[in-house]
Structures are given as C-alpha cells and as structure tokens.
Amino acid sequence: MAQVAPGEHELRRVIDEDREVEGLGEQELLELYRSMVLLRTYDERSLVYHRQGRIGTYAMFWNHEAMQAGSVHALEDGDWLFPSYRESAIGLLRGLPPATVLHWWRGHPAGWWNPADYNVASICVPIGTHVPHAAGLAWGKKLKHEQACALVYFGDGATSEGAFHEGANLAAVMQAPLILFCNNNQWAISTPVSAQTHAEALVDKAVGYGIPGLRVDGGDVLAVYEATREAADRARSGGGPTFVEAVSYRVAPHGTADDPRAYIDLERVEREKQNECLGRYERYLRRLGVLGDELDTEIKDEAAEAMRRAIAAAETEPDPDVALLFERAYANPPKSFQAELAELRAILGGSVG
Ligand SMILES: Cc1ncc(C[n+]2csc(CCOP(=O)(O)OP(=O)(O)O)c2C)c(N)n1
Ligand SMILES: [Mg+2]
User: Is ligand 1 within 6 A of the CB of residue 162?
Assistant: First the structure.
C-alpha cells in the first residue's frame, strides 16, 4: 500500500516570493509570456466574435491563462493534453491554428482535428468524462514503455463527478503517468466550491487515492510551471499520478449565457481582477528587466495579428454540406437516409450544400 503524505494546503508561489525557477532562462520566461498573451488575445477576441453573433456560446478563460500556459510549458510535446471547454484554446500552444478553435465554437466540422497530430484530445464538454480517457491513455503509455505522460484539465465542480473518481482511481491503481490538473476557480457555474466538498481543500482527495497532491497559486504562472514539472518528472520516472490543485478565482462569467450578478460577490471579483495573472507576470518580467515596452508591444501585436488572420480565415470557410448530418453515424446507413437527405435539401431550397 502506498505511503502518501497529506496533500499540502499552503499555496506554492514564485512570483509573490520574487523567486526564480531553476531551468527557466530569459528565452523560456518570454516564451511563457508569449503563450499567455496569445491565450488572452484569443479569449478577448472570441468574446467580441460572440457578441457579433459569429459564434454561438463561448466559455471565457480570462484569468486562467497562467494555469494553462504554465502547465503546458512544463511538459514535452510528446505528452498528451485532455482539455475541458475551459481550455478550448490550449491547442494553440501546440501549434493548432486559432481558426480551428473558432470553428469548433461555431460547430463547424473544420473545428475538428486529429488528436494524434498535436497530442491534444478533443475538447470535452460533459464534466469529467475525459478523466478516464486520459487515465487510459496514460496507462497505455506505461504498458508500451513510452516515456510520455498525460495531463487532464478539469474544474472544481468536476471533482464531484463519478467519472473523475473512476479515472483518478484507475490511474492510481495502475500507477499510470497522469497529471490530474484541477482548475479550482471556486465556482461551478453558480455553485461555490464550498458546496462541492466538506474537505478543507480539494487537494485532500489525493490522499484517498494514495497519490501525491500539490496545491499551487493558479494565478502564478511560474508556480504552476514548477508544480507541473514536478508531477511530470514523477510520472515519467514511474512514480504514478499526481493531483495538482491550482487555485484561482473566476472573474468572468461562467460563459456567455451566464449572468453571475445573481450569485457572485462583485466586490470580490473587482479585487481579484486587480491581481489577474497576465498583469502579475508582466510586472514580474519588467522587475527582472526581461521585458520592456518595445518587446511587450511586439508580442501583443503579434498575437493580435494572429487572431485577425484566424478570424478572416474562419469567415471564408464555406458552410458544411448538410449531408454531413447523415454521415459517420452508421457503417451501413439505413436506406431511408437518401430520401431524408433529398427532403432536407428540398426544404432548404437547395441553397445549402
Ligand atoms: C455531466 C455534466 N453535467 C452537467 C453539465 C453542465 N455544466 C456545464 S459547466 C458546469 C460547471 C462545471 O464547473 P467546474 O467543473 O468547476 O468547471 P469550470 O466551468 O468552473 O471551469 C456544469 C455543471 C455538463 N456539462 N456535464
Ligand atoms: Mg470551477
């Protein structure tokens, strides 16, 4: 039986302690910043895109960029990512075109990708159902004696789901190289984290699975990087899974269909915004003398230009053929499909597809 120390409750921090992280030189620090700026730009532009009625619903991740960039940079390209809708743009950090993610939110088939091309699984909307998938993939890596690990993102609310338990337990029993990365933004739509668990902290769940747990300031990109690297090193050296609880605060609505004024403390939101993760890291880099005005403008312009190009590309993509509605469901489609497709084309006046 595993002897596991209780999960740590104190948040690990780097930026507020003005420490430096071993192994991160000037270039790596700036790459992390570039990734955060790209994610922030993607998020802010997507919200505008939604307001213009060009995508349907959208789940913002404003102030989650430190968790996302810090964790991805701590991994190797061969390691797998399993995002939830909150990490919809995580593939950008692996070279996935932003237009593809915009298409995904438009429900367009051009928003699909082959997970094996980027080692990024498809975006999971049902809460927690991707945790067993990630556990299975990680276990497979172990069985094949491959060095890679998997990281699965899920929220505080997901820890109340059966699928989370099944995946975490399977990974622990099989000692699969998995990082269970909990984005604890303290809300599951309108349900506060205090209603998800009676434990003092979500990281306490790790003890029950017999795996180590780390608790980190989710708004501190360097602390997230350091904790994820520790978990990845353990996974690769045969030490099994780690539960990482990254604590932040959701300062944006849950999604574009949500109005949090009905349930959130708006003063707390304003306070948390003052300490949002991108500004915090920018100030740290400026203190270190790694970032100045000119470079900052260059990085932000580059991200804005990438998004302009992505939106232009997304706009020119033709609508999919309606035949797609009938494809890929059956190996041997029923004969009635032909007639139904013809009927649909007639209803649509032959204008589509
Ligand atoms: C299985 C399932 N149940 C319910 C929902 C509806 N739902 C969508 S988001 C959400 C809250 C999830 O909160 P959390 O896990 O904390 O993630 P966050 O959105 O805060 O990143 C719920 C209940 C769903 N998508 N899937
Ligand atoms: Mg949450």
Answer: no
Ligand 2 mean position, distance from CA 130 (Å): 16
Which DSSP category does 215 fall into? E
Question: Does residue 126 have its Cβ closer than 6 Å to ligand 1?
Answer: yes
pLDDT score of 352: 47
Condensed to tens digits (0 to 9), the pLDDT of residues 39-78 reads 999 999 999 999 999 998 999 999 999 999 999 999 999 9
pLDDT at 329: 82
Mark the residues whose beta carbon lies below 5 A from ion ligand 2.
155-156, 185, 188
DSSP 99-152: HHHHHHHHT-GGG---HHHHTBPPPB-STTTHHHHHHHHHHHHHHTT----EEE
Q: Is 250 a catalytic residue?
A: yes
Which one of 263, 268, 287, 308 is the catalytic residue? 263
Q: In the chain, pLDDT over 90 holds for what percent of residues? A: 92
Residue 315 has pLDDT above 80, yes or no: yes
Which tokens go with 255? 């999604």
- CA 43-276-219 angle, to 5 degrees, is 95
Ligand 1 atom index nearest CA of 255? 19
Which pLDDT score is estimated for 353? 45
What's 323's DSSP letter? G
Q: Which ligand 1 atom sits nearest the alpha carbon of residue 189?
A: 11
Q: How far apart are CA 77 and CA 61, in angstroms?
A: 23
